[in-house]
Design goal:
Elements (H helix, E strand, L loop, with lengths): L1 H35 L2 H4 L18 H16 L5 E8 L5 E5 L11 H12 L5 E8 L5 E5 L8 H12 L7 E7 L30 E7 L9 E5 L6 E4 L2 E3 L8 E3 L8 E5 L1 E3 L5 E6 L3 H15 L3 E7 L7 E9 H11 L2 H16 L5 H14 L23 H12 L2 H10 L22 E8 L2 E9 L5 E9 L5 H16 L6
Parallel strand pairs: 4-5, 5-14, 8-11, 9-12
Antiparallel strand pairs: 1-2, 1-18, 3-4, 3-15, 6-7, 6-13, 10-11, 16-17, 17-18
Helix pairs in contact: 3-12, 4-7, 4-8, 4-9, 5-6, 7-8, 7-11, 8-9
Length: about 500
Amino acid sequence: MYKAKTRCFLYLRRRKAMSHLCKTVWVVLSLLIIAAGSPVAAFAGPTAPPVRAESGVPGDSTAHLKKEIDGILSRDFLPATTAGIKVVSLTHGDTIYEFNPRLLLVPASTQKVFTAAAALSVLGPEREVATTVVLDAAAARIYLKGCGDSLLSAADLTALASAAAQKMGKGKEYALAADLSCFDDLYRGMGWMWDDDEMMISPLSVNHNAVSVLVQPGPKAGAPAVVSAEPRTPYYTLENLARTGSAGDTNSIQASRRPGERENVVTVTGAIASGSSPVVRQASVWRPELMALALFRDALRAQGIKVTTMTTAPAPVGATEVARTSRRLEELVRFALKTSDNVTAESLLKLLGLHATGKPGSAEAGSVVVRGYLAKQGIAKGNVVVADGSGLSRYNLSSAETMIQTLRAIYRDPLLYRVFQESLPVAGKDGTLKNRMKGSCAEGKVRGKTGNMKGLSSLAGYATSADGEPLAFSIMIQNYAVFGGQAREFQDRIAKLLCGFRRTK
């Protein structure tokens, strides 16, 4: 009888313990289920966020916006693709949407935001970037000194030659040298791919360091295309392999210098449809400073100045300046951002290095200045990698949150913000956003910097909501195998949602 009572007691105790364990497990499972539906869990990694029920907040437009973006992201990209997104209000200060905001990704050309902001802040928008002509004491050699004006043109060189010729003897012979002492001698950036040879970085630039090739159809289908190029100089050779296609054919014209090729042979290939409008293509040249020097030499000769040899050498101390042309830094920043010009962005980075060290500007020294600027905005060293100024390097790393911190800092500086936001492409209007978001509420209300490389796409900038509220946003999409246009369409759809956003419905 005693043993039976004992077994009964033990059985009841085990049942009680099992009941307590079941309740504990049920509580834990319930908490996990709740957490899985929360924004924190949904944004913890590159898995598709659930489409959350919005019961209880039917008038909350922020919740509706989150649901819309989550849905687009889940349907079109996740879980295979990586994304980092953040949207904040610049007046209320709250976060309107975020997904993987701290995830480090390759920013592509949105890297230019960091370069431009640092250049405007450290150097100032009024900073003059000059190209000068100087004569040595013996007046036997003339020097053309470039210092980062990436917008220098053949016309500028002609004007410099005209001004310099007034102070030179026409019966005297001169040697000509390019002074490249403002920058180091590295033509390419750290981490650039072997075939990223479309542009060379030099303190003495001309025509964006490229040949502009104009291609027109021939008299009939099958005939060679008609090809010409600017600037006109024997420094490069134009090889025309392009043909005239039938009317209505798709144009397939390309112009390029083979990566690594140093003979400056620009080859034009493909077909242009009969009756088609002219097509313009760009091809880089090797050692662009020598093309600038050749154009300057020819312009001097046209002024009656005898020029014998050409070389590169720094101007000696005591040389006399005889001509100058310059541009303000804000003009260079505007061109870099509007057109996403790599040469200009890299020149700005090296100008920062020159300013900081007093030595030939380098990307390494310039990157230190950019990181210093970002540190002042509260961005930790581990949250950004600055490898170059243009974003061409895949060594660059940033996050949506880092970009937002930078955009917010720019917004809070009235002078900096005025120049910066005027330099950004405007949706449906100009720059790299000219043909995007046309006819939508975002047209004219979104200003953003684009960034595109194979397998990744970014857009960052400012938007104005339907209530007139200023917003900052950053959208980074990476590791996708689909056509890049899908990623850009996703960015545009988010931008449109932001412009239609109201605090309450």
